[in-house]
């Protein structure tokens, strides 16, 4: 939940670019997800792991070993970068954002070539 404000800013930065932020929710009670997403202003797509929570099919198939795990996926479905854990402070957030910008530029250049 601590990453949500930063994720919200990433959604804004990636707007109009060939990327999307996708969340995976490990809450076991599906009834609480909608209200929590609304409360925390989560406007991006988020998948539910199922009743198994962190042991559900999405974490199993994607080899998620901890939370949060972030994947930067381009418009062709290629995972460009994976992070385990999020940035803890403003300096780390700046580095994180700079790395995302680097991968966005690489993906945009690849898109123009094809």
Give the SSE map:
Elements lengths: L3 H10 L9 E3 L7 H7 L6 E3 L8 H5 L7 E5 L5 E6 L5 H24 L1
Parallel strand pairs: 1-2
Antiparallel strand pairs: 3-4
- Per DSSP, what share of the residues sits in E-state strands of 2 or more residues? 5-15%
Biggest sheet strand order reads: 1-2
The DSSP helix count reads 4
CATH fold label: Glutaredoxin
Overall mean pLDDT: 84
Secondary-structure-based class equals alpha+beta
What's the main sheet like? 2 strands, parallel
Based on the coordinates given, report the CATH architecture.
3-Layer(aba) Sandwich
Number of strands: 4
The name of the CATH superfamily reads Glutaredoxin
Q: Can you tell me the number of structural domains? A: 1
The separation of the N and C termini measures: 38 Å
- Could you give the order of the helices and strands? HEHEHEEH
Work out the helicity level. 40-55%
Offer a concise description of the structure.
This protein has 114 residues and is α+β, with helices and mostly antiparallel strands.
Would you kindly provide a written description of the structure presented here, covering whatever features stand out?
- This protein is of the alpha+beta class and 114 residues long.
- It has one domain: Glutaredoxin, CATH 3.40.30.
- The chain has four helices and four strands, in the order αβαβαββα.
- It has helices spanning 4-13, 33-39, 57-61, 90-113; strands spanning 23-25, 46-48, 69-73, 79-84.
- Strands 1-2 form a two-stranded parallel sheet.
- It is globular and about 45 Å long.
- The model has no long low-confidence stretch (mean pLDDT 84).
